Amino acid sequence: MKALVYHGPGHKEWESVPDPAILAPTDAIVRIDTTTICGTDLHILQGDCPEVKEGTVLGHEGVGTVVEVGAAVGNVRAGDRVIVSCISSCAVCSYCRKGMPSHCLGMGGIGWVLGHLIDGTQAEYVRTPFADTSLYKVPDALTDEQAVMVSDIFPTGFEIGVRYGDISPGDVVAVVGVGPVGLAAVATAKLYGPSKVIAVGRSRPRIDHALRMGADVGVSTNDPDWADVVMAQTDGLGVDVVIEAVGVPRTLQDCVRIVRPGGHIANAGVHGRPVELPMESMWINNLTLTTGLVDGTSSPMLIDLMVAGRLQPEQMVTHRFALEEMVKAYEVFADAPTWDALKVAIHREA
């Protein structure tokens, strides 16, 4: 089969690799029908995830068709259309039972293995561990482009941004960074009844996209006084909750500038280096800072909301490619400002 293979920082190739095979009775083999690229894949290519070995097939998001299952798999069978979760869960270890499959002991203490510690979804086929509890059947009402957003982006924006941010009705919420994770946070923050959602970013097209997905106000960081603009939206008090969805030190530091005493900072960005924070002022302002790796436990609920029309994740798809155009898709996604790209949908067939 063909797959996108990592060959060290800055190097990748669409090339022939062996077909995946069942290695455990709980495995399934899924034919990838639609996949996409995540910001985390770019972090890997930048060398921010040294545990990813050369020769690994990248990708942890996908929708496909089950073609083979192991002897112990009972919930899915060949022919089922499924969402491949970015988190593989054994469902029985202590962390999975706590609702934290992100640290599944069945996978060695980390649930994110696809495209990280084992071969991933940017391929014609993928082996999925713990298929019964790591694959979700796709309702007929959802398209592949809707369903693939449940693999990672929407659960991440919701769980690590909105839920960890502890949004309450009436809160003023700022989302700093309006790429795919930030947009997912914007859309799902509205489920909790905030009085105002402020989208903060550099790209005007992305800010406009955030407004279409539910933000009430858009603020560009190209304005040197952008933080004052945000504060003016809160009577000078600061926001109740700020979600960081970029993953660089400056943006997390900026979040501290705009949150009010007693507020929450929810870090959903993937950071590849240390961040210096002003703890001398954060502690006395009673700030809560949360961060984490997505668990994917919200996926069934998000699927239901999509079927009901409450969420329209397909709005984030700006570019479409065939699988054999994977390298071109990376070029577009990695240079998003030039192409006005958000999420790229990569389909088995053009």
TrEMBL record:
Pfam family, one: ADH_N
PROSITE patterns: ADH_ZINC
Sample GO molecular function, one term: oxidoreductase activity
Ranges of residues in domain Enoyl reductase (ER): 8-346
Keywords: Metal-binding, Oxidoreductase, Zinc
UniProt cross-references to InterPro entries, sorted A to Z: ADH-like_C, ADH-like_N, ADH_Zn_CS, ER, GroES-like_sf, NAD(P)-bd_dom_sf
Cofactor(s) for this UniProt protein: Zn(2+)
Similarity comment: Belongs to the zinc-containing alcohol dehydrogenase family.
PANTHER family noted in UniProt: NADP-DEPENDENT ISOPROPANOL DEHYDROGENASE, ZINC-TYPE ALCOHOL DEHYDROGENASE-LIKE
Protein name (record): Alcohol dehydrogenase GroES domain protein
